Structure formats: structure tokens, C-alpha cells
Amino acid sequence: MTHIHTSICRICTAHCPILVTVDDGVVTAVTGDREAPLFEGYTCPKGRALPAIHAHPGRLLRSLRRRADGSHEEIATDQAIVEIADRLKDVVDRHGPESVAAYTGTSLGVQHPTGSRVAGALVRALGSTNMYSAGTIDQPGMIVADAYHGVWLGGRPSFDDADVWLFVGTNPIISKQYLEENPARRIARALDRGTRIVVIDPRRTETARRATLHLQPRPGEDAALIAGLLHVILREGWIDRDFVAAHVEGVDELRAALAPFAPQAVADRVDVPVGEILEAARLLGSARRGIAAPGTGASMSNPGPLVPYLLLALTSIRGFWARAGERIDRPNVLLPPNHARAQAHPPYPAMSGREMRVRGLEASVAGLPTGALAEEILTPGPGRIRALFNLGGSPATAWPDQALARRALEDLELFVTTDVEYSPTARLADYVVATKLSLETPGITQGTELIKYFHFGYGFAQPFAKYSPAVVDPPANADVIDDWQLYYRVAQRLNLQLSVVNFFGTPGGVAEAPVEVIALDMEREPSTDELL
Ligand code: SF4
């Protein structure tokens, strides 16, 4: 029997609406859903590969336990959970609750958002505060820069209302960052409308190839180049004087700090022709509305929050913020309404005051620094992390310094991961709990509404939401669970009460919204639908 189901791809935050062809219980094709007007049938090769992902011969269908010699053997998932709970209790009894940590990677956060909520509840119920995430590897500078600069509570204008877009180290056509829905077509339409697109990127990316102006600085020199643009904009007086007078402080200090970044000096330093620097500054300085958007490239190759901070400064002196009466960009559908106000929120502390045990590092508004996690595992003394849950991440390959990461993961007394394949991280785990693939479990677009509070490159341009029930069952011979069930069942065995915090309860940002703490029924296991 052939059925075609409407669903959503959950491989990335775009959550493209898809049509899934299922033949006799097997996913055989995925195409874009042309009935979803916002996306116009768009999918990328990853989404269209969902049938191959579901049918992959390396798919993990059963959980694994590590043997003494480092190899793995199959274990019933229920038995794995019992053993994990018992070993976790032993670690907590001997080392205290702060010896337990969890790390959330990008896969779980997007594909199975219930997993990180319930895992967080387990870590809290154990008495630990050690929640780490990929957010401090990727673009923590965005969140830190907001704290240093202050936040405009009205948000930004819509991309579609802006007449200049500046992308720095980001490639939306491939990453979907900033343009979640059908990015190439949105760029083509914007160019047709007369929008000017400026890309700063050492690489001639797919987005750069379509740009009005592509500046190709030496790698790692984005900040100097943007400083040069700001220098010109201030020198030429291309500032929104009314907005600055009403809402902005520190322009004279900014001007003084940028004095060394005259166009020719910057051109020599970053290896971009001076004429291109002047032209980019003119496009930004003459626009009525603009958006300046940094990406992962700028985050990883420049010092900390410098690039996002400079782009916030540019946004403020040009008055590129949404004003009273304008429509709210990226409105909520499943989350409560976002209450935008045309008002500045002053800078706030970027650092949390919580000191790490290594290198004098400190947690920031972006969270505990994952860059310190391997050393927190390896460094002896009180507070040393001895048990780690990996939630859909890839610590063995994604943490900075892979050799150090591997040593740390091998040093843990208990390392538990969920996975759908025998990945480099799974190979190092004491227990690998086999979990469902995305089309085998319900999905919802709510997470994408949340992420925009941390990074304005996410969220849907128009009111859009979709829920999808599971489309197929796992293979008949599989012993797999939803990710969240691991943490719930471990808590059950340890007689812990779990309370999940709703999406607005996630720390960070200054969103004004209700935080709801929901106690889970620990007698009767909820369904994934109930959690969603
Ligand atoms: S863009 Fe993201 S959500 Fe859309 S098909 Fe590709 S991976 Fe899936």
C-alpha cells in the first residue's frame, strides 16, 4: 500500500513542509510540499535524503553496552536504562551531584526538542547545574554581544522590508540561517525588488555569488573590515540622528575607537580594494532600512563577540531597528505572543559569575563554556565531572581539540549517548541507547520560534506552524525509544520527580514571557505528543 503523508523535515531549523511517500511501511520518497506557500515546495538534498537515512544499513536498531576491552555488545534498551540508572546513582553517591553533566548537540535540539527538556529536568533533579550545549561552540558571541551592547525590544525589521542586507561569514543559501524558507528564491526576489546584498566572506560562497557586492577579506579580518565600514559611515555622518539622540549612548567613544580604521589602512590590512570598502559603506549608509547579520564563519575566526558587537553598533547608529507601528518580524504561533516594544533595553552583565575550574574561564549569558568541558572532566578535585549524558551531539568530533575530547570521554566513569548510528562518539560510550529517527516520532515547529530569542537568524518570516504525527513505525526488529524516554525512565528508576520548563524558561535573552514549570507524572509515562 502506498500512502503520501504531509510532514515536516526536522534535520535543520527550517522545518520544511514535506510530502513523505510510504510504501508498505517504508519511506521511499520525500519531496517539498507545494501546498505550503511560505516554502513553495522547497527542500534541500538533506531533506530529500530522508528515505536513505531511514534505510541506512548502519542504522542502530539496538542499544549497546561497552565491554571491558572497549568493544560493544547489544543490550536490551530497558536493561541498558536500568544499568545506567544504577551506575549514575553510584557516581552521585561517591562524587556528589555536580559530578553529572549533560551536553546538548544540534541534532537533539532541533529533531527531538523534548529530549533536551527532559534531560535538563533529570540533571536538575539530581542536583546538578551542569548543562552544556553546542551554543557555546557555535556563535556564543551573538548572545554576549547583545549583553554588552543592549537590546532593542522592538526587534529588527523584516528582511523583506529592508533595502540592504549585510551578511558576514554566513551563507544562507546553504545554511538557511536568516532565510529559513526557500533562501535562493528569497534572495532572487529581494534583488528584483532592488535590495542590495553585501556579503563579507573570504570564500566565494553560493550567497556571495549572487550578492550586489562581495568583499573578500583575509580570513579572520572581518572585524577590521567592519570597523572600516563604520569608520566611513561615522565620518560621512550617515547616522540616524533622531534615533541616536533618543536611544544610543557612546557614539563618540565608538568614533574614537574606530579612528585607526581609515579606509586605506583597512584595505591594506584585510586585502580588499579601498573602492569596495567605500562602496559597501555607501550602500549601508544610504539605505532606509537594513539588516546586518553575522554567521558562524565570523564567529569562529574572529575574537569572541567582536563582529556581532560591531554589527549591533552599525545597526544602532543607522537606526536599523523596527519602529513603533511596524509589523512584528517572525511572529510566534505556538509560543505565546512576543510583546515587542520600540524601546532600548540597556546593556546587562555578559558573564554569569560562575567560575569554571579551569583556565580562569567563566560562564556567560550563552551558558557554560563547552570549550572547558573536556578539562572539567580531566581535572581532579571537587566538582570534577564523572558522568556525562550526550544528547544528540558529537563531542568526539565537534568539541574543540579532538584529541583532548577523546581523552576526556574515555576518562569518564559513565558516558551515555543516544544515537542512530555507531558514530565516533558512540564508539567511546559506556552505553549507546538506540533512538528513533525523525519520521518515526511526532514533530513540531515550536523550537524554531524559540531559537530567534537567542539568534535572530532563525524563526519563520510569516506566521507558520506545523505539527506532524509519526509517519512510519521503526523497523519491526528494532528496540528503539524516543530520546526523552531515556532520561524519564532513569529518573523513574531513581525515584526522582521531573519538572520540565517550557521553552520560555530557557535562560538567555531578555524576552518578556511567562516561565512555566510542569511537573511530569512519574507514575504514568506521558506520550511524546503530551510532552510536545
Ligand atoms: S532545509 Fe533543513 S528542514 Fe529543509 S529539507 Fe533541508 S534539512 Fe530539511
Pick out its properties.
alpha/beta, binds iron/sulfur cluster, Dimethylsulfoxide Reductase, domain 2, 532 residues, 3 domains, Rossmann fold, Phosphorylase Kinase, domain 1, globular, single chain, four-stranded parallel β-sheet, 17% strand
The small-molecule ligands in this entry are: iron/sulfur cluster
Level of helix content? 25-40%
Largest sheet: 7 strands, mixed
How many beta-strand segments? 22
What is the top-level CATH class of the largest domain? Alpha Beta
Mean pLDDT: 94
Label the CATH architecture of the largest domain: 3-Layer(aba) Sandwich
Oligomer: single chain
Q: How many domains make up the 3D coordinates?
A: 3
Strand order of the largest sheet: 5-4-18-17-16-6-7
**How many helices?**
22
Distance between the termini: 30 Å
Computed CA radius of gyration, to the nearest angstrom: 24 Å
The CATH topology of the largest domain is given as: Rossmann fold
Structural class label? alpha/beta
- The shape is globular
Low-confidence regions: 506-511
